[in-house]
């Protein structure tokens, strides 16, 4: 399976289970982190769609969550940041 790192957006080949302290081969970010989990959702309560999961403060650091499931894709595009970038480009002075 491939897991796209939330930080550098590069692919990492992983086994069925990601180790708690396993790191990205390219940027050394932790792979067993909320931002690489299929339950991560910045709009959900506690930024997690799994209601039984414990609260994790740092979503980029490794954690011991038993519900972790590799997402297999990069993070969702932040719509607010996307719109702001478009507005900045529109009103940018030459």
Walk me through what this model shows.
With 94 residues, the chain is mostly loops. The protein is built from one helix and two strands, in the order ββα. The mean pLDDT is 88.
Report mean pLDDT, rounded to a whole number. Answer: 88
Shape: globular
Gyration radius, to the nearest Å? Answer: 15 Å
Number of helices: 1
Q: What's the order of the H and E elements?
A: EEH
The residue ranges in which pLDDT falls below 50 over 5 or more consecutive positions are none
**Amino-to-carboxy terminus distance:** 46 Å
Q: Can you give the helix content as a percent range? A: 10-25%
Number of strands: 2
The portion of residues forming beta strands comes to: 5-15%
Q: Strand order of the main beta sheet, please? A: 1-2
Present the secondary structure layout.
Layout: E1 2-4, E2 11-13, H1 79-90
């Amino acid at each position: 399976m491939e897991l796209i790192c939330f930080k550098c957006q590069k692919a990492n080949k992983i086994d069925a289970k990601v180790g708690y302290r396993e790191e990205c081969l390219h940027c050394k970010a932790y792979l067993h982190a909320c931002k690489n989990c299929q339950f991560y959702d910045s709009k959900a309560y506690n930024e997690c769609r799994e209601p039984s999961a414990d609260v994790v403060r740092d979503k980029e650091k490794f954690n011991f969550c038993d519900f972790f499931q590799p997402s297999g894709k990069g993070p969702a595009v932040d719509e607010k940041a996307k719109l702001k970038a478009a507005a900045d480009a529109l009103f940018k002075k030459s």
